[in-house]
Q: What sequence folds into this?
């Protein structure tokens, strides 16, 4: 025991708040939301088409350069922020919530529930994602909601499988047995006792889900079934970039950078949150 | 009953600019001249080497009747001679056939085949092959997307002699002869087997200058010289088609010397212009062809039922600026449904100007006012707000649409630009269930007949007049033009139509842009035409590469 | 264990049935048809008469249940039908493309695991350490790089500027045989494999990292260290073993993807694989090919899911006991 105690000293470094990268991540997330909040101020500039200034490289007037229609890219990236963030977060949330609900129920209740829910998960899992995205996007009129639904509804089976596996792993551990013995209801046990323990991989998955959704939206735009052209998103800007890969690197760099910041920030934030929830869940 | 005496009728299709041939047939009998055996190929000794060409996608078949798109056409040009071909000036010239003669009522035609034409195995190309091919095309059980429409009015086709066959049609049609710019299939190779599944569809019997060597799925198709070809031999030992779906990758392959030609867009042209590596190994050919783009408007909607509103919309699209900027100056504003290269286009019909003020007046006249002050015009409680479709991958179309939508917004009209992938896009067009759509008209032959696209009998779902355009005067002129055998008078009818189309604005005709190809500098003899560099004869068959291609050092 | 396996196999049947019905319905109800998909390259449209005849030829004029019955009937006889596009047997088209995709994606997956697992374990061993932070940021940067962009850039650098690697294709036209030929093929594989790898690194590495980081302070790892196991051994043998479970799940999710390939990468590198076939077939509304590939994907997914569950059961007996108890 003494050796373990010795060891635990450097390992169990106390964590007050969100140290290190967690703090930076939080700052970036706040910044992104601030940008989203002020974005309507740029709407006018973002929509202004000036064909004679198309594909202009970054300069004082256009810090991010201009796009293929001579629109100011900085303004476009700013205007796209709330839409892309909304798509990323909502699609990831839909995916994790549906995935957790289905997967955890399957794992916790087992038996017929598990049987039926697992089949449902498998059906959606086996479904060709690209095809489903194309079909859904073709059926639903183009709007951010349609894209969110299409993306969220195709990714949840992955989360469901995690949730189910993790619930199976922890549901017979002592604390869960204890809660059951104490007469706690199933949803209460699931949410109060099991959720904190299966949250870590789900959070990581959700953080990636945010980025995946934004990238998937780019791919959908690229394939022509994404948002209507009148709605500006990072994905939409990125999708137009390959045509001008050597002429206008800025068309891919800046929305790509915004995407990177989002991915990195949400992931680091998720990991920061994870270390906190783990501490609490076990306590 | 004896058939009426056949009077040979002149084929006057677009032949005005054809150079005079020596030894033109006498006796008032005009026919398509047979070029001297050497033709433009000069009968020169065949050169060696490989020509490396590009395909966007994989051909679905090498059965000439079943072909549906460009990749098939590019390969088949080497393997299957047509009865007639178009030359670079859009005149019909003989191929497998020597001449075509029409009956006086214009309903029947007799086509004589060349006696020396043989298949790859040495057997002659016969009238039976022609009869078989045409019957197959007309057969309701055969899918022949490219040729079906041309033989829709076919009544019968039968052999008319050891070297000729006769086809009879329900209606006379001024451009009938163009239907015979078509290849033939060897009838006996398809006996006793399902036509769609015949082994020949993947390994066709050639009657052209090359024959198939290998076909690797999604990768490449290799051809070699056909030793039994009856005409002047091809200049290259081999022709190698590489399937490269991505345009910018094909451009790079060209720079590396992996390709000798590729189509490029405006963005790549700009890149090439600034790239010393390109200048060292390659050159650009650029020319105007018969394609143009336009924005189709659905006249069934209240917005587009009124010609004044359609004209107003045309005046809100700054086409001159689009030609200057998006196309870098390599496009011309058009005023009707033809490209200026087409004889049907009347250069004196000036396009409507970009004039937002006049457009506003027209919109007011048509009853579209902003009655509730929300910035969008309305009439009878309906806002002028429509969906503008564009097919995915049509970059320039999307750019035009977004520019257009921005200009419309200033004029109190809302256009919502939406991209759709091709199959859904076409379905919406074909069924007429769209509001407005940005598309390109792409010609495979010089036939300028506007009837299939603008005559009121061709409304969806029966025809391709997707916007439900109807103008009784235009209808009559189009019907007349189809029957008019005299080219001058026919062109005059088209010119009258052109003026109507400009003022009626059944669609917004945008621009006719140049086609651009990047070629290896070593490639010589590349001739361009309003039909492009490929869809003509001899076209690519006259290309040569006298010197070894210069390769750029890494 | 055998009973568990058999039961899982039996359960795959209703799943397959569900998928088949869903794909069939979605495919046939989706807008567009094999006829309207024609002329995508030339932009030419098919005349109404030709369109109608073709619809009849493809059997699209018949009611949906009848078409479904015909298709199921053929599938039951293990006949995948023939492609609308080139009239060849669907099986033949898939057989041509599958080896290329398996090779490309298999190598990419191996490379991903080969980099992600050691990186994840090392980063998880010292959370918030320098390696953890640097690798985290670097991996997220890679993850946010769209693959179409990266592929074109890598081509520009390695194929165009430096001329180290071929631009596209699976092999040179005149590839030597033997060792030289192998080398030639590897050169052609290099760029597409890298493009398929860099994006998935982040997910795998972070997953392993979080599993390891979580487990390293747990009693059994600490106990192992207390028993005198080296820090490295404690991490790999105990902490990593625990992180293995979510990794297996993830593998179960991505392995079937080996079959489906990546459209964008296969297009850019002119790789004759399943991804392109599948995508082109969807665009062309080549129903028999899309159905066959979907079915194939479903079977593969089910098989891998089953394998993953079995592996799970082996790695963690509680899973098996828990399931078998019911």
A:
């Amino acid at each position: 025991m003494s050796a373990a105690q010795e060891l635990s000293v450097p390992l169990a470094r106390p964590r007050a708040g969100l140290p290190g990268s967690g703090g930076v991540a939080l700052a970036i997330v706040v910044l992104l939301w601030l940008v989203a909040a002020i974005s309507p101020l740029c709407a006018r500039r973002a929509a202004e088409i000036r064909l004679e200034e198309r594909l202009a490289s970054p300069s004082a007037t256009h810090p991010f350069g201009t796009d293929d229609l001579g629109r100011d890219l900085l303004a476009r990236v700013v205007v796209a922020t709330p839409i892309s963030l909304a798509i990323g977060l909502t699609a990831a949330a839909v995916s994790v919530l549906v995935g957790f609900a289905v997967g955890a129920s399957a794992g916790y209740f087992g038996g017929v529930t598990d049987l039926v829910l697992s089949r449902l998960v498998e059906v959606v899992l086996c479904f060709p994602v690209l095809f489903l995205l194309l079909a859904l996007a073709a059926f639903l009129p183009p709007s951010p909601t349609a894209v969110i639904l299409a993306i969220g509804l195709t990714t949840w089976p992955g989360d469901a499988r995690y949730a189910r596996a993790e619930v199976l792993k922890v549901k017979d551990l002592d604390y869960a047995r204890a809660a059951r013995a104490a007469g706690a209801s199933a949803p209460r046990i699931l949410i109060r006792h099991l959720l904190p323990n299966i949250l870590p991989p789900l959070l990581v998955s959700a953080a990636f889900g945010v980025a995946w959704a934004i990238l998937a939206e780019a791919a959908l735009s690229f394939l022509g079934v994404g948002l209507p052209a009148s709605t500006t998103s990072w994905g939409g800007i990125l999708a137009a970039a390959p045509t001008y890969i050597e002429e206008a690197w800025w068309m891919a760099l800046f929305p790509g950078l915004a995407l990177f910041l989002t991915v990195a920030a949400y992931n680091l934030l998720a990991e920061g949150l994870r270390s906190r929830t783990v501490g609490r869940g076990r306590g | 009953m004896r058939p009426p005496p056949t009077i040979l009728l002149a084929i006057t299709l677009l032949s005005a600019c054809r150079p005079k041939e020596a030894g033109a047939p006498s006796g008032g009998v005009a026919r398509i001249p047979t070029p001297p055996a050497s033709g433009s190929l000069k009968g020169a000794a065949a050169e060696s080497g490989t020509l490396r060409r590009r395909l966007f996608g994989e051909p679905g078949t090498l059965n000439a009747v079943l072909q549906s798109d460009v990749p098939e056409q590019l390969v088949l040009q080497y393997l299957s001679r047509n009865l007639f071909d178009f030359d670079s000036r859009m005149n019909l010239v003989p191929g497998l056939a020597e001449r075509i003669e029409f009956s006086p009522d214009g309903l029947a035609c007799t086509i004589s085949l060349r006696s020396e034409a043989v298949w790859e195995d040495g057997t002659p190309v016969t009238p039976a092959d022609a009869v078989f091919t045409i019957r197959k095309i007309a057969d309701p059980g055969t899918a022949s997307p490219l040729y079906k429409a041309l033989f829709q009015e076919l009544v019968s086709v039968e052999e008319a002699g050891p070297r000729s066959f006769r086809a009879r049609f329900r209606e006379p049609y001024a451009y009938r002869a163009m239907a015979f710019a078509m290849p033939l299939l060897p009838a006996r190779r398809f006996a006793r087997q399902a036509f769609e599944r015949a082994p020949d569809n993947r390994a066709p019997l050639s009657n052209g200058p090359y024959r198939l060597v290998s076909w690797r799925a999604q990768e490449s198709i290799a051809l070699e010289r056909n030793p039994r070809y009856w005409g002047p031999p091809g200049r290259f030992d081999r022709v190698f088609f590489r399937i490269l779906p991505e345009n910018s990758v094909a451009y790079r392959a060209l720079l590396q010397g992996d390709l000798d030609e590729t189509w490029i867009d405006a963005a790549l042209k700009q890149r090439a212009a600034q790239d010393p590596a390109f200048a060292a190994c390659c050159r650009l050919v650029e020319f105007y062809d018969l394609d143009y783009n336009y924005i189709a408007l659905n006249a069934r909607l209240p917005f587009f039922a009124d010609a004044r509103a359609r004209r107003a919309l045309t005046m809100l699209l700054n086409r001159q600026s689009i030609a200057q900027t998006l196309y870098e100056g390599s496009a011309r504003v058009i005023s009707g449904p033809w490209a200026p290269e087409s004889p049907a286009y009347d250069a004196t019909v000036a396009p409507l100007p970009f004039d937002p003020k006049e457009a506003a007046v027209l919109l007011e006249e048509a009853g579209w006012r902003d009655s509730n002050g929300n910035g969008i015009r309305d009439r009878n409680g309906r806002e002028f707000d429509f969906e503008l479709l564009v097919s995915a991958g049509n970059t320039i179309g999307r750019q035009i649409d977004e520019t257009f939508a921005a200009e419309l917004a200033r004029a109190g009209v809302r256009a919502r630009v939406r991209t759709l992938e091709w199959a859904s896009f076409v379905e919406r067009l074909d069924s007429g269930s769209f509001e407005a759509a940005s598309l390109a008209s792409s010609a495979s032959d010089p036939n300028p007949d506007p009837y299939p696209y603008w005559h009121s009998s061709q409304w969806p779902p029966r025809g391709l007049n997707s916007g439900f355009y109807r103008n009784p005067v235009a209808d009559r002129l189009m019907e007349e033009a189809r029957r008019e055998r005299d080219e001058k008078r026919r062109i005059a009818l088209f010119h009258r139509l052109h003026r109507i189309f400009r003022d009626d604005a059944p669609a917004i005709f945008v621009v006719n842009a140049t086609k651009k190809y990047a070629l290896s500098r070593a490639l010589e003899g590349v001739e361009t035409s309003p039909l492009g560099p490929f869809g003509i004869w001899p076209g690519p068959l006259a290309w040569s590469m006298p010197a070894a291609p210069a390769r750029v050092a890494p | 264990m055998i009973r568990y396996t058999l039961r899982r196999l039996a359960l795959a049947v209703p799943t397959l049935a569900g998928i088949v019905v869903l794909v069939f319905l979605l495919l046939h109800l989706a807008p567009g048809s094999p006829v309207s998909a024609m002329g995508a390259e030339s932009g030419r449209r098919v005349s109404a008469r030709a369109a109608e005849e073709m619809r009849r030829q493809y059997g699209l004029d018949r009611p949906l249940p009848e078409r479904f019955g015909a298709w199921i009937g053929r599938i039951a006889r293990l006949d995948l039908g023939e492609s609308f596009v080139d009239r060849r047997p669907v099986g033949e088209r898939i057989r041509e493309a599958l080896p290329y995709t398996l090779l490309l994606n298999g190598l990419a997956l191996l490379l991903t695991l080969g980099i992600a697992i050691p990186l994840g374990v090392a980063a998880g061993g010292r959370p918030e350490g320098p390696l953890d932070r640097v690798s985290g940021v670097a991996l997220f940067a890679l993850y946010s790089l769209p693959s179409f962009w990266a592929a074109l850039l890598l081509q520009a650098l390695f194929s165009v500027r430096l001329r180290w690697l071929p631009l596209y294709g699976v092999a040179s036209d005149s590839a030597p045989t033997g060792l030289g030929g192998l080398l030639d093929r590897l050169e052609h594989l290099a760029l597409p494999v890298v493009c398929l790898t860099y994006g998935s690194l982040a997910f795998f590495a972070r997953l392993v990292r979080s599993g390891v980081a979580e487990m390293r302070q747990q009693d059994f790892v600490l106990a192992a260290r207390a028993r005198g196991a080296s820090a490295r051994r404690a991490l790999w043998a105990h902490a990593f073993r625990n992180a293995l479970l979510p990794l297996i799940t993830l593998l179960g999710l991505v392995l079937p993807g080996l079959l489906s390939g990546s459209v964008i990468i296969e297009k850019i590198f002119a790789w004759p694989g399943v991804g392109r076939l599948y995508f082109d077939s969807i665009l062309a509304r080549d129903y028999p090919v899309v159905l066959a590939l979907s079915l194939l994907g479903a079977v593969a997914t089910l098989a891998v899911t089953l394998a993953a569950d079995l592996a799970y059961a082996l790695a963690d007996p509680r899973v098996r006991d828990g399931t078998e108890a019911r």
